[in-house]
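Dear U.,

For the methods section draft, I wanted the exact inputs and outputs in one place so we can describe them consistently. I've listed the two proteins in the order they'll appear in the manuscript figures. Please don't edit the token lines directly; just add comments below if something needs changing.

First protein:
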Amino acid sequence: MAAMANELGYRTARDLFLACPAIARDMKSLATGQPPLDFCRALLAGRVPEEAITFCAYLLPERAAVWWGHECLSTLAELLADRDLELLALVHDRVGEPDNPDHQAVLSNSLDLPPATPAAWIALAAVWRDPTLNMVSTGFPAAHAVNAGILAALARASLADRFAVLSAFVEMGIQMAEMEA
């Protein structure tokens, strides 16, 4: 387990907080010396399980985080508007062929800022580095937008289903982190 955390670049949750101070603006829980995935599971079992989503968004490398956001929203497709489904398809193309400038341009041009819907947040994360959008200058990483998009989608799930959906999202994030390692 510890070796895997090293592969992600963070031995402990605290290491991630130190490397990426913006995470402290998106979540209230304080980092511990636990390995990142243990910390993530503890968040899921804690008082504010949504913070496990936030932590995953920051833990995953940017491209993986965007893909994770795409996959989470895809599981809730029936709760999304057609416009969001179109944006998700564009995100799919962008992440699938990151070196194709056409995908970047199409996605950047189809975004309405500020984003108002779950998929618009994920789409923004996918083009975060586009200099014309100037998002990097906000001081927030793309993880901030991934987190916002997933939490906005989660809010559309029924209260009865919400924790199950949240848990499934976090498990998917943890699996992606393990694959990245």
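Second protein (the one for the lower panel):
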Amino acid sequence: MGIEGLNNRIADIQSRIIALQTQQAGRTTQSSTTSSTGAAGDDFASYLSDAVSQTSTSGRTYSLNGKGIPTDLEAYGNGKIPASALEQVGTTRHKLWGPAAEALTRMMSDAEKDGVHIGITDSYRPYTEQVDLARRKGLYSQGGLAAKPGTSEHGWGMAADLDLNAKALAWVRENGAKYGYFNTASRESWHWGFKPNSVQGSGGGQQFSVQ
């Protein structure tokens, strides 16, 4: 190989060692940063919750027709609303009409800050599911627990069934109205419908803005 070739080989090996050391240092720094972030996990969770509560509905104006149905959804029909026309509630798998989803997300986030957990068992309900529920549980008007298919608040994305323990139920009963949520089915403590604060609009409808 000769002296010159040997020196070149040594220089090449030294360069590779330096490169490996640099990569290792980068990994160490990244690991340290990750550990620091983990130590602030509670703060991060709080920030995430606040960020999630600020949805795309903010600043927009919405309206309800004379029957209290969202005018941007009425053309679809009860229980026939496409997923793309609804908004996700926080980080859950549930969807509701935009303002209803935004309000429920804020309510859940604020409850968590008070040490109260609010879960969701049902939200928007397609027409076929309304029919099945009426068959299994009977119509509300006849002593059952289901609305007549095609008339359900769930079918407009305007109601959610909440998973509430005694503490959470007391919290929602006390605070739900602040977010526009009311227990609209007297025999169902878990059923909460969205009735937004609004001003009277034309044609007997209502208009309101999401801040």
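Candidate sentences for the figure legend, describing the second protein: The mean pLDDT is 80. The beta strands are 61-64, 87-88, 95-96, 119-122, 159-163, 181-182, 191-194, 199-200, 206-209.

Thanks,
Y.
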